[in-house]
Write a structure and sequence with these properties.
about 30% helix; Rossmann fold; alpha/beta; Dihydrodipicolinate Reductase, domain 2; six-stranded parallel β-sheet; single chain; binds NADP nicotinamide-adenine-dinucleotide phosphate; six-stranded mixed β-sheet
Length: about 325
């Protein structure tokens, strides 16, 4: 079997570390793995399989001779360095929002739109974490009954803001426990024992950029620009795992039973919906898993063809690392790399 030369940019971050674990756990065929980050963590060691790899400082000359570079180092780094990877003939899978809405850049969730991956399209965008889990759940319903409108509210874990988000919650919980002053570093307000309806910056129309990303990216991935979506995104004091309450209106009638049946057969979806056992998805049960979990599937009787679903996934895995590794696997499967 052919093996590949792979680079992880942002290897020391919350997503980068999961990326390395996911490459190992999914047994991606690797010949050489290079780990890159900023000068801050150059020289640090990260374990991959039975080896300790040394993190090096990113520079534009690393990409020649490599097959795939997975970037999780923020938008500015991707904007600057992804073109060097592409120029060197190295496929770049980017986790930031830098390239997602560019017309010729594929924005990919492998269960939903693998067909947009093509030879020679060297920069590939990984969607926003909240978008990924939503489209995995919407796609089978859209195919069956044509979705007209979606209203989504999110409950997003602090790890969505990276290592510093995790640290903030940890430090604040400890401070509260010890009766000390709570410091606010990363979020707009204290996140411990709180909810913050504000992720990313506010736009002129009152929506946040995170909400706009969910809307525009979903239209692009489903290749349906008539589908109307509105979103409210909320940060919650959970370390890991995003949850979403999604209200759906379809053109054709779809019962809760039919929705449950089509979701149970959908790629990458696990239905957890047995009310007699209090079974429904939650962040603690999605942690460390690659799938998207769907439950609380029920009809919304206030509209003609309405449905409510509850969707949970590990934001660091399906929302980032495992979706990116699945894209790499699809590049291999299609003979693109
Ligand atoms: N967290 C999520 O759930 C999630 C989901 C989807 C997408 N993303 C995206 O993934 C990216 C990384 O997020 P994260 O949560 O992993 O953040 P993070 O924990 O803050 O990690 C950032 C990583 O980027 C590296 N980095 C920063 N500036 C760099 C530079 N100039 N050159 C090279 N490396 C640099 C850091 O290296 P040092 O150790 O050297 O600082 C670190 O490895 C972001 O674009 C984010 O939007 C995150």
């Amino acid at each position: 079997m052919k093996k590949y030369k792979v680079i992880v940019v942002g290897a020391t971050g919350a997503v980068g570390r999961e990326m390395i674990r996911t490459l190992e756990n999914r047994n991606f065929p690797i010949q050489v793995l290079k780990l890159l980050a900023s000068s801050r963590s150059a020289g640090s060691k990260i374990k991959f399989k039975n080896n300790e790899l040394t993190v090096e400082e990113l520079n534009k000359n690393f990409f020649k001779g490599f097959d795939i570079a997975i970037f999780s180092a923020g938008g500015d780094t991707s904007k600057k360095f992804a073109p060097y990877a592409a120029e060197a003939g190295c496929y770049c899978i980017d986790n930031s929002s830098a390239w997602r809405m560019e017309k010729d850049i594929p924005l990919v969730v492998p269960e939903v739109n693998p067909e947009v991956l093509q030879k020679g399209r060297y920069i590939i965008a990984n969607p926003n974490c909240s978008t990924i889990q939503m489209v995995v759940a919407l796609k089978p319903i859209h195919d069956l009954a044509k979705i007209k409108r979606v209203v989504v509210s999110t409950y997003q874990a602090v790890s969505g803001a990276g290592q510093k988000g995790i640290l903030d919650l940890k430090e604040q919980l400890t401070a509260i426990e010890n009766g000390e002053t709570v410091h606010v570093n990363n979020f707009q307000y204290q996140i411990a024992n709180n909810l913050i309806p504000h992720i990313d910056v506010f736009m002129d129309d009152g929506y946040t950029k995170e909400e706009v990303k969910m809307i525009k990216e979903t239209n692009k991935i489903l290749n349906d620009f008539d589908l109307k979506i509105t979103a409210t995104t909320v940060r919650v004091p959970v370390y890991r795992g995003h949850a979403e309450s999604i209200n759906i209106e379809t053109k054709d009638p779809l019962s809760a039973k039919e929705a449950k049946s089509v979701l149970s057969k959908a790629a990458g979806v696990i239905v957890q919906d047995d009310l007699s056992k209090n079974e429904y998805p939650m962040p603690i049960s999605s942690e460390g898993k690659y799938e998207t979990f769907v439950g609380r599937i029920r009809e919304d009787k206030t509209v003609k063809n309405g449905l409510n679903i509850w969707v949970v996934s590990d934001n660091l895995l399906k929302g980032a690392a495992s979706n990116a590794v699945q894209i790499a696997e699809t590049l291999v499967f299609k003979g693109i790399v």
